[in-house]
C-alpha cells in the first residue's frame, strides 16, 4: 500500500516530470495553452452563417465579439455528455485546443449541430391487414433512416394530425374525389404541425449527401413559395406552415375541384416554385414498381405483406448502391504505422467489408428508378478497400478512421507495455499519429498542433463530414475470441449511412465461431495476438485508478497534446451523434412507424 506521503511524493515527481517535458520543448513543441488562447480568435470560422440562419442561439454576441479568454466555464448544454466524453457545441470549434474555450481538458468543443429540417409523411393505417401493416412499418423505418442520414428529421403523420387542422371540416364538406381528398389530408396534417417538407412515404432521397437539391432542401424553404418537383406529381413539397394553410384555403375556392385528381391541379400556380428535372429522388409508387420491378409488383399483388417486404429489401439495396456509386474509388481504412496497427484498425476493416457487401434482395442487379445507369452491386464490381498511411482527400473515397489514444499507440509501437517516462521523452516523437496520418495532405514540416484544425475540419466540417466516419480504438471491444463489431454500433450506423448494413460476412459463418486468423489473412499469428494483448493492457492503464496509471497516462497526453486533442474530439463527435439520434427516438416514440 502506498502511504499518503508516498502518494504526495509520487505526485511531485509526476509534476516535475511534466514540467521537464514542457521545458525541454524543441521548436516543434505544441504551443502552450496560453499562446493558443491568445490567437484563438483567428480560428472562428470566417464563413459564419447569416444571423437569421442560426437556430436557437441564446446569445448572439458570444460569437460576434472578438474572442477573449473565457474566465468561466461555458454553461452545460442539454444532453452533452455520454460515458467519459463531454462536449460543448459552439462556433468556436475550430480552435486547436478545446480547453482554451471550455477550461476543461475533457470537454471538447464541437461544431453546432446542423439544424435538421422536418420532413413529414402521411400514413394511414386504417383498413390494412396485420402482415401488410408490419411490412409498411418496415417501409416507414427504411424511409425514416434514409431521410435521417441526409440530415433531415423524419416524422410520420396520420389522420389525427389532419383532423387537428382548423380547415379540416371545410375540406370534408366539399365531397372531393378520394384521390384528391387524400392529397388534402396530407396537406392538412402538414399544415397542422410545422413548416418543413412533405414527402410521400414511397419517396426516397437517392443521391449523395451533398447533392444540390437535397442541400437546398436542408437549408430551408423560401417563405414566399411552396417548392415542388417538376413531373413527379404530388410527391414532395417544401414550405412554411402559414403558406401551406393559405394554399389549402385558396384551393378550396377553386371551381375545378370536382374534376381535379391532384392537389397540384387545384392550388393556384403562383404558390409554387417548381424544381426542374429533379434527379435526386426515387419514387417507389405502385406504377413505378409495376413498370420497372415487375416481379415485385406481382408478389405484392399475390400477397401484399410478402411483396412489400421484398420492396423494402430492394429499396435498401438501392440506397446502398447509391452510397457505393458515390464512393466509387473505394473505402479507405487509414492505417498509419502499418506494421503495428493491424489489430488496432481491424474494426474499421470489418465495417468496410460489411458496407461493400451486397445486401440480399430480389432483382439484385437492378438500379434505382432515378438512376437507371447505376453500377449494380455485384461481387465483380465490389468496392475496393484500401489502407493508405494517411487521409486521402478525394470526394470519391470514403474514409473510416480509427484513432488510438497516445498511450495505446506508444505501447503498440514499442511492442511492449513497459512504456516509461524516459522512453516517451527520449524515444518517441510527439503527436505521431496526427503527423503521420496528415502527411500526404499537409506535408512533412508542420508540427502536431498545426494539424489539429485541418484534422477537425475533416472529421466535422462540411466537406469531410459526409465522406468520413471516425472512432476511437478504445470505443471497440478488444477480444481475440470474438472480433465481431458490437451490434449496437452497427444498429446506430444504419442511421448514419441511411441503409441497413449487411450483417453477414461472405463466409456466412457466425463471427464468434471463426478462427482468429480469418480476420488477418497472411498475418503472423504471434504478432497479432501480441497486439491484441497490448491494446487490452493499454485499455486497462487508460481506465486505471492507480497513481502510476494516471501518471503515465498524463505524461503520454502531455507529450502528445495534439494527438490527445484529436482523440477526444473524435470521441465526443461520435458520442454526440449517437446521443442526438437516441434523443430523437425518444421524442418520436409517439409517432407511427418508430
Ligand atoms: C506563440 O507561439 C509561436 C510559435 O508557434 C511563437 O512564435 C510566439 O512568440 C508565441 N506567442 C506567445 C504570445 O507566446
Ligand atoms: C479528465 O478525465 C480523466 C480521466 O477520466 C481524469 O483523470 C481527469 O481528472 C479529468 N480532468 C478534469 C479536469 O476533469
Ligand atoms: C479536400 O478537398 C476539397 C475539395 O476538393 C476542399 O474543399 C477541402 O478543403 C479539402 N480538405 C482538406 C482538409 O484539405
Ligand atoms: C513497430 O513495433 C516494433 C516493435 O514491435 C518497433 O520496433 C517498430 O519501430 C514499430 N514501428 C513503428 C513505425 O513505430
Ligand atoms: C522497463 O524499461 C526500462 C527501460 O526503459 C527498464 O529499465 C525496466 O527494467 C523495464 N521494466 C520491465 C518490467 O521490463
Ligand atoms: C437527454 O436529457 C434528458 C434530461 O436531461 C434525459 O432524460 C434523457 O435521457 C437524455 N437523453 C439521452 C439520449 O441522453
TrEMBL record:
Lineage: superkingdom: Eukaryota
The protein's name: Uncharacterized protein
Region span, Disordered: 65-84
Signal peptide: 1-24
Species for this entry: Helicocarpus griseus UAMH5409
Keyword flag Signal: yes
Keyword entries, A-Z: Signal
UniProt keyword Signal, yes or no: yes
Amino acid at each position: 500500500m502506498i502511504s499518503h506521503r508516498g502518494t504526495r511524493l509520487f505526485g511531485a515527481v509526476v509534476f516535475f516530470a511534466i514540467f521537464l517535458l514542457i521545458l525541454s520543448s524543441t521548436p516543434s513543441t505544441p504551443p502552450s495553452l496560453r499562446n493558443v488562447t491568445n490567437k484563438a480568435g483567428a480560428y472562428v470560422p470566417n464563413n459564419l452563417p447569416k444571423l437569421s440562419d442560426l437556430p436557437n442561439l441564446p446569445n448572439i454576441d458570444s460569437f460576434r465579439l472578438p474572442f477573449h479568454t473565457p474566465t468561466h466555464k461555458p454553461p452545460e448544454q442539454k444532453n452533452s455528455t455520454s460515458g467519459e466524453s463531454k462536449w460543448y457545441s459552439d462556433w468556436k470549434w475550430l480552435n486547436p485546443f478545446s480547453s482554451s474555450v471550455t477550461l476543461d481538458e475533457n470537454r471538447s468543443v464541437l461544431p453546432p449541430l446542423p439544424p435538421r429540417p422536418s420532413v413529414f409523411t402521411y400514413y394511414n393505417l386504417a383498413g390494412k391487414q396485420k402482415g401488410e401493416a408490419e411490412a409498411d412499418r418496415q417501409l416507414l423505418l427504411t424511409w425514416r433512416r434514409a431521410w435521417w442520414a441526409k440530415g433531415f428529421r423524419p416524422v410520420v403523420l396520420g389522420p389525427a394530425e389532419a383532423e387537428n387542422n382548423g380547415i379540416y371540416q371545410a375540406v370534408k364538406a366539399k365531397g372531393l374525389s378520394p384521390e384528391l381528398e387524400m392529397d388534402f389530408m396530407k396537406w392538412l396534417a402538414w399544415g397542422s404541425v410545422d413548416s418543413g417538407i412533405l414527402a410521400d412515404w414511397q419517396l426516397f432521397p437517392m443521391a449523395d449527401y451533398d447533392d444540390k437539391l437535397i442541400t437546398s432542401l436542408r437549408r430551408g424553404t423560401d417563405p414566399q413559395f411552396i417548392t415542388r418537383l417538376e413531373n413527379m406529381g404530388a410527391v414532395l413539397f417544401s414550405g412554411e406552415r402559414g403558406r401551406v394553410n393559405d394554399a389549402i384555403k385558396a384551393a378550396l375556392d377553386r371551381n375545378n375541384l370536382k374534376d381535379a385528381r391532384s392537389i397540384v391541379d387545384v392550388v393556384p400556380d403562383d404558390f409554387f416554385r417548381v424544381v426542374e428535372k429533379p434527379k435526386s429522388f426515387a419514387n417507389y409508387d405502385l406504377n413505378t414498381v409495376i413498370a420497372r420491378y415487375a416481379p415485385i409488383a406481382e408478389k405484392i399483388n399475390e400477397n401484399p405483406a410478402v411483396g412489400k417486404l421484398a420492396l423494402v429489401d430492394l429499396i435498401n439495396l438501392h440506397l446502398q448502391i447509391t452510397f457505393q456509386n458515390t464512393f466509387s474509388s473505394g473505402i479507405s481504412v487509414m492505417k498509419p504505422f502499418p506494421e503495428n496497427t493491424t489489430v488496432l484498425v481491424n474494426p474499421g476493416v470489418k465495417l468496410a467489408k460489411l458496407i461493400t457487401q451486397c445486401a440480399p434482395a430480389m432483382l439484385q442487379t437492378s438500379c434505382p428508378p432515378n438512376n437507371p445507369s447505376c453500377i449494380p452491386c455485384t461481387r465483380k464490381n465490389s468496392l475496393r478497400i484500401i489502407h493508405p498511411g494517411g487521409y486521402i482527400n478525394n470526394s470519391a473515397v470514403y474514409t473510416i478512421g480509427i484513432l488510438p489514444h497516445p498511450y495505446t499507440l506508444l505501447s503498440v509501437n514499442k511492442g511492449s507495455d513497459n512504456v516509461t517516462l524516459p522512453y516517451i521523452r527520449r524515444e518517441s516523437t510527439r503527436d505521431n499519429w496526427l503527423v503521420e496520418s496528415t502527411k500526404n495532405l499537409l506535408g512533412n514540416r508542420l508540427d502536431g498542433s498545426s494539424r489539429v484544425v485541418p484534422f477537425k475540419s475533416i472529421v466535422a466540417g462540411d466537406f469531410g463530414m459526409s465522406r468520413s466516419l471516425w472512432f476511437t480504438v478504445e470505443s471497440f471491444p478488444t477480444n481475440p475470441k470474438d472480433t465481431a463489431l458490437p451490434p449496437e454500433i452497427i444498429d446506430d450506423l444504419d442511421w448514419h449511412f441511411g441503409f441497413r448494413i449487411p450483417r453477414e460476412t461472405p463466409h456466412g459463418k457466425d463471427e464468434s465461431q471463426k478462427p482468429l486468423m480469418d480476420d488477418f489473412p497472411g498475418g503472423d499469428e504471434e504478432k497479432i495476438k501480441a497486439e491484441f494483448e497490448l491494446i487490452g493492457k493499454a485499455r486497462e492503464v487508460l481506465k486505471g485508478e492507480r497513481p502510476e496509471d494516471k501518471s503515465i497516462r498524463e505524461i503520454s497526453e502531455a507529450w502528445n497534446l495534439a494527438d490527445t486533442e484529436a482523440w477526444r474530439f473524435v470521441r465526443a463527435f461520435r458520442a454526440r451523434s449517437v446521443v442526438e439520434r437516441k434523443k430523437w427516438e425518444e421524442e418520436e416514440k409517439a409517432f407511427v412507424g418508430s
